[in-house]
Structures are given as C-alpha cells and as structure tokens.
Amino acid sequence: MKMLSDLSDYTKWDAELAAMAQGWSDQCFFEHGNPENTSPFGYVGQNLYIRYYSKAGQPAPSAAVPIQKWYDEASQYKYADRSCSGVCGHYTQLVWATTTHVGCGQTYCETALDNNGKMYSNAWLITCNYGPGGNYKGQFPYQEGEKCSKCDSPGTCKGGLCRDCDLMEDSACICGLQCENCGFTNTTNGECACNCQKGFWGNNCEKPCENTHRYCGTSPGWPSKKYCGRHSSIPKNCPLMCEICEKVEPDFVCEENETPE
User: Fold this and answer.
1) pTM attached to this predicted model
2) Which residues cross the membrane (predicted)?
3) Which residues neighbour 233 within 8 Å (Cβ) at sequence distance 6 or greater?
4) How many CB atoms lie within 10 A of CB 24?
5) Using an 8 Å Cβ cutoff, are 144 and 79 in contact?
6) What is the pLDDT of residue 248?
7) How many other C-beta atoms lie within 10 A of the C-beta of residue 210?
8) Cβ–Cβ < 8 Å for 134, 96
9) Mean pLDDT, the chain, as a whole number?
C-alpha cells in the first residue's frame, strides 16, 4: 500500500483524510464509503478511481492519472445551468471552491468488487477524500469572475489560485482583490487587503456595516462591545456594535473608479 501525496500544494494535504482514504481502499470495494469519520470535517467528499490489469505485478499509476481523468469530466459539464451530459461529480468535487484539504490512499487488490458484484482483477484502487466536501445539490462549484478577486485573507494569488504568498519576494504573487463600494486595495508593505469606505466591511468591502442579529446591543443577548471577544460569531453578526466598521456617512456617494487621496 502507498499513500498518495504528490498533489498540488494549493490544496492542503490532510493526514486524517488520507488515513481514512487508505482504510477504505484497503477494503478493495469499488464503491463510495468511508470508515468512521475521524477528520475535523463534518462532511467529507470522495472520488474513486480503479485501474486493473490482465497480469499481476503491474505498477501503481501516478497520482496525476486519476486527477486528470476526473478533471476531464469538465467537457461534459455546463456551468451556466449546472447540467451534465455524462459523469461530472468527480470534476465538480475536484474544483469545489470551498474544499480546502485532501487526503488520498491506494491499495493493490488481487480482486476488487463493486456493489453490482462486478470483479476487477489485479487492480489498483485509489480513494481521495475532500474536506469539507462539495457537490451540494443546486450549488455551483465556484463563482464566475476575475481570478482571485474574492480570495479570503490574506487575499494573495499565484497561478490564478488563491494562495498565501509573498508580494514582496515572489514576482508571481499578486493581489487580485476587487474591492466593492468604492473600497480600494492596499498593498503597503506587502499587504493585500481592501480599505473600505465608512458603512462597509468584509474582505471585499461587500458587507454593509450593520448589526444582523437580534441579540446585538440587547439584554438578554450581547448588550455591549465587551461581549465581542467571547465568540467569533458575535463580531460577524454585530460588526457595528463591535466597531469593526463605522456607519455610512449621510452624504456618501460611491463614484466609480474612486481612488484614495
């Protein structure tokens, strides 16, 4: 048996997902499933691949083989209406935007079976687990738009993918953020962030500065700013109370292409 780890470093390798994947491959059952979920992810996605031979002793395929097979399903997927003319689930899981970790395992099986009783001789069974999993019904695997325009903090981008890289030392590293509501990008000292106008906040200045939970500033609830450090959800729900942002100026008008003085 052999763990697969020669994957792109844009998605982080997770040892627990890999151990689960290895445990599943070891069962030589070509069907989706998992042993007990011991990963930190509540929902785990999964892709499977099998390569079988007429003779025993054939080498295992490289990790690039199943990944390319799964990605090739893109030709059958239509983003506009999420329709698929064949099999697309491996591709959509592979490119699912909110999946951040992956772990894979592979096993040589003298005999592997699927849930229909089909037998595969001299087979390599590869399992990749993804956390958090994707392929939620009715959802797009990613948002259309400019590459890296919605990267989370620190907002940097390399090779068209959101990635924590160094703007000062790596010429391929860029700040791809597109700030909304007349915010503007700040790359001072290697930062990659949006400076928001009063009245807005968020990674792209896309959120209005307003409390959204009925407990903000109330008792019972979170009556004052001192409660903001008690749980990460409080500042997210009460940005105005927690002074993450300020109220919009009454005479503020967002002009296109506005730049800081």
Assistant:
1) 0.71
2) none
3) none
4) 22
5) yes
6) 84
7) 15
8) yes
9) 90
Q: What distance in Å separates the CA atoms of residue 198 and residue 210, rounded to the nearest whole number?
A: 11
Gap between the Cα atoms of 31 and 25, Å rounded: 10
CATH code at 12-131: 3.40.33.10
Q: What is the pLDDT of residue 4?
A: 44
Rounded Cα distance between 128 and 146, Å, is 29
Cα 89 to the center of its chain, rounded Å:
16
HEC letters along the chain: CEEECCCCCCCEECHHHHHHHHHHHCCCECCCCCCCCCCCCCCCEEEEEEEECCCCCCCCCCCHHHHHHHHHHHHHEECCCCEECCCCHHHHHHCCCCCCEEEEEEEEEEEEECCCCCEEEEEEEEEEEEECCCCCCCCCCCCCCCCCCCCCCCCEEECCEECCCCCCCCCCEEECCCCCCCCEEECHHHCCEEECCCCEECCCCCEECCCCCCCECCCCCECCHHHCCCCCHHHHHCCCCCCCCCCCCCCCCCCCCCCCC
Q: Give residue 147's pLDDT.
A: 86
Output the pLDDT for position 148.
Answer: 87
For residue 151, the model assigns a pLDDT of 86
Residue given tokens 């990613």 in the structure block: 142
Contact 221, 215 (CB under 8 A): yes
Copy the structure tokens of residue 92.
């959509």
Domain coordinates in residue numbering, the chain: 12-131, 209-250
Per-10-residue mean pLDDT for the chain, 261 residues long? 44 94 97 91 96 91 94 96 96 93 96 95 97 93 88 88 90 93 90 92 93 94 94 93 90 62 41
Asked if 92 and 77 count as a contact pair (C-beta separation under 8 A), the reply is: yes
